[in-house]
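Pipeline run #58 for the internal structure catalog. This entry was flagged by the ingest filter as a single-chain record with no existing model, so it goes straight to prediction. Upstream metadata was stripped on purpose; only the residue string is passed forward. Reviewer on rotation: M.T. Logging verbosity set to normal.
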Amino acid sequence: MAVLQMQRISICALKKDRKAILEKIQSMGIMEMNQIAEDEEGFEKMDTLSARQRFEKMASLSENALDILDIYAPEKKSMFAGLEGKKLVDSGQFTEITDRKDAILEEAEHLVACNKEIAEHRAEITKLENQIEALAPWLKLDVPMNLKGTGKTEMLLGTMPGETSLDAVYEKIAEGSPETEAVDVQIIHSDQDATYLAVLCLKKDAAAVEEVLRAAGFARPSQTADEVPARKTEELKGQIGQLDQKIEEIEEEIKACAKDREDLRVVGDYYRMRAKKYEVLGTLPQSQRTFVISGYVPRKAAPAIEKAIGEHYDCVIDLDELKEDEEPPTVLQNNAFSSSVEGVLEAYGLPHKGEFDPTTIMSFFYVFFFGMMLSDAAYGAIVAIACFVALKKYPRMSASMHKSLKLFFFCGLSTIVWGILFSGYFGDAVDVIGRTFFGVEVTVPPLWFAPLNNPMKLLIYSMAFGLVHLFVGLGIKGYMQIKDKQYLDFFCDVVLWYIFLIGLILMLIPSDIFASIAQMTVVFPPALNTLAKVLAIIGAVGLLLMSGRSSKNPVLRIALGAYDIYNITGWLSDVLSYSRLLALGLATGVIASVVNQMGSMFGGGVVGAILFALVFVVGHLMNLAINLLGAYVHTNRLQFVEFFGKFYEGGGRPFEPFKTDTKYVDIKEES
């Protein structure tokens, strides 16, 4: 329930130890680089851009090779592969693989070249297929397409508009070139788009005939063949077959490299680490013999750096407190339960410097409200067991995934408790199964009450829980003001609101409005009724006079106070928002009951049992999925809008330490 205190650390060491110190800091992963000695006289920064780009290019090469393997030799993965996390590689194995990095990169280049060759062959196949498609209408032509004719004749090949008849062609020639002595026209192919024809005429008439035909839409073919079209088509198909055979051979060659997939991953991670190190190296101020590293480190981790660096290298280490205007990165520290909700807080925004970390308080309300919304013991058991098994079976999953599953595990446990309180076990499955298949009425009584039988009672409790949630948020605001010694603000913005709201609540409870909603009448002693009115009046007057205290204009001050009192409508809106606890809780139970009733419509017996089981499984899985999502979304909303709206700003930036940030493997350091 705290934001770790940060310190600025500066290390001045000999240049000869630069590589070793950087690698040590990177392996520890507890220091964020933030250089401050850039402008010191005698220090300059090293240009590492070209080296970093070279390492990034090599990492990209290995990544491209892996992508190619995934295409031609896909790796078999289970549906839960995303939970497995990175593979753990000991430092000896990592060193052994990286010692062969040049050979592994040569293989990566070979894979890229093979993929390029396949792409070229496929492009050539597409080109040949286009040629075959262009030759298809001419397959009945029994002479080469580029044949000019004989000594005295000339052949004209081309197309006319679709469905042009032979008579129409002769008629066009006769009308346009009546002096033509002899002409022979053959239609090779005709369809709705074009008519493909061969015209044979005397050489002396060829130009006139072609001019007449062009006027009617005649056009020479865009591609011709020096062979008979049918023979050329077979030749092209043979070339395609040869290219397909080459592609198969290259694919087999690529598949044979699948055994080196892990080596490519390790080498890719190696160069990613090198690129990151050189990126940091390029920011370090360096003199002729020394260099300086500056950055942020959690206060509790500072001794570890002093021991790891200070005891093994000639250096000077300075630890400085942060300046008042310095905004450090944020690192949260919470217990095992509360840390599971850190991802939810990060989605909204981390606390900035000096701000209260609401994670622990939020975690209790989050799990409480989530379970109340889902509110079915069987659903909660499914969620909790599934998350527990995943957490135990996949211990190396990513930190964010681990937090999320742990959160849903606790939410599942909360759901079990609420399900028992409300008697929700797959809805009313126990009642329906007993009545349908065994002819007996078996009812599991709720430990508290059944929301479907008394929804108004659940509504009252939902708003009461919401009011507690909001009051806690207001209390945190007061705590932060006291911490910052803003005592007047605490009294005006927190105490007066507590007085005003408590007075209004005490006035509401014995009223007819509350009695109609709660279906019960509450009678307070006259003294308590008087106290409620006094509290409400004191709170209202105090807010009216003090909310606009920043203004010296008395009229404006009163106006601002009146506007702040009007904010009571915002409080009412916030409290009503907690009715979603009722809505989501009822939705889970109602849909589950409908599913059970649908399954029981087939009656008893073997067939009825089979159909009931089918409807039961499908229906409840859908209900669980929908309401699980609904509970998650609306629980987040209650935290982000209603709770955080009372005190929390956020806006802190996350801690980004210089570390071994690999993509595929984690390196196990030797003791």
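catalog note: The chain is about 60% helix and 10% strand.
catalog note: Residues 389 and 547 are 53 Å apart (CA to CA).
status: ready for reviewer M.T.
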